[in-house]
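User: hey, got a sec? need Dolichyl-phosphate-mannose-protein mannosyltransferase folded
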Amino acid sequence: MILRFIKRILDALFVVFFGVLCFFMVFRVPTAIFAAYIALSLVLVYRIRSKGFVFFLALGSFLIRFAYISIVKTPLESDFKLLYEAAVLFSQGDYSFSELVYFRDWAYQTGFVIYQGLVVKLFGPDGSIWALKILNCLWNTGITLLIYLIAGNFFKERSSRLASVLYMGFVFPITFVSVLSNQHISTFFILLGLYFLMDQKLIRMKPLPRGLLAGLFIALGNIMRPDALLVMVSLAGYFLILLLRPGNGKQRLERLMQCLAVFLVYLAVNSLASQAIIRSGVNTEGLRNNNFYWKFVVGLNYEHRGGYNEDDYLLIYGSGLTEEKREELEKQVILERLGMGPKKFASLFMQKIQFFWCDSALDWSYGHILRANKVFYLLSNPVKFSDVDAVLKDLNELFIYTAMLLSLLGVFARRKEEKDDRLAIPAALLLISFVVYLLIEVQPRYAYLQQPFLFILSGMGLDFLSDRLDVSTLRMIWEKLKGKAGQESIDYKGRKNDTITRHKSMDN
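Assistant: Yep! Here you go:
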């Protein structure tokens, strides 16, 4: 009896070992990690109660990001170093940083410098970097929660939960919180503004105050980083749809008032902030963009697939040209590159689509470790960090491709169904971003704003799948199969007993 039990245990262990081995051989480590995460997510999504889920999502998201910044000490590099150094000067009452060409041409970065400067003033130069990284964790945790809350207005509860949990485990934002980028706080406020505009489940407000708050928060996001122009164009399309919808006079007036509230508050807050910066002497250029053509010069560079490069920087800024002559040179370069021909354009666009939407920006966070060729020891076995990097990049791609596929699946599968007008906002933002970034400078990290909307729309695909793979249906099929198998077993036993009885009768 005992020997038979031990044998069964050994057989089970062998099957498990062999199955796991085959799984890793066929699917590789990133796929195994992703599959395990999805399986765990499904369990949590189905098991946790409504009130506990928000707490779990917020705490889980923050702890994952906090653990990362505690382990990986990302140094200040590139523009992030320049912005932080300017913030330190601001905290000391020194506005000399605004005399740099960087802050004269791209004065819109001043809003973020002021934000960081206030944190430096509060925590001091020694503790401010750590404080800013913790704030980044909080901003990104807020983004994760907003994905759940916004998606919950359109999709099933479980689909909304899974969409937000997918983003919670998405590698790029987890690693990027260690970088002092203005994208964290900007994206949070933009999403918060859209939440006030789109939500109809939790917020009980009339259209006008919704519009006022939406315009305010989107403007705050734009002051931190001028990405909100894409959002405002998307909202223009949304309000056009609303205004063309049939309705009575009161409804049309409410829609018009909400539209005006969003745009007027957005423009007023941005203008007031810019004027305040000018009058305070922080930057005489306010929040202006004084080199509009630069993004197009870089974005149309075929050799560097539309990304930042030193060649273009030296071409435009290396000769010490005046502002007027530099602008003329930029126009000339843009015209030359626009004449590259359809084949090169097609090739450039394909490269930019891959570079912007699919490539990872993980190097911004741990590039210093990668460049150092560090080796770690896992259970006394040496592991190169380059191998870890390969796993993380593959895992990052699995998350982003899953979100893309789910979004596309939902859009195409439900294209004939009547959708909520508010869904036009994330869809329009992604479409407009797709077109705009074909022409201007791209970097994988620039997709930070677009990615939450991609995960929101993934809820549509998850809804479609859940309709066809309903758990109760699967359970019913399973029960029927079990019942059928049980009936067959009973029939078999009955036939067997009849056969034995007949044999006994013949023997007698």
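Quick note: The chain has 20 helices and two strands. Let me know if you need anything else on Dolichyl-phosphate-mannose-protein mannosyltransferase.
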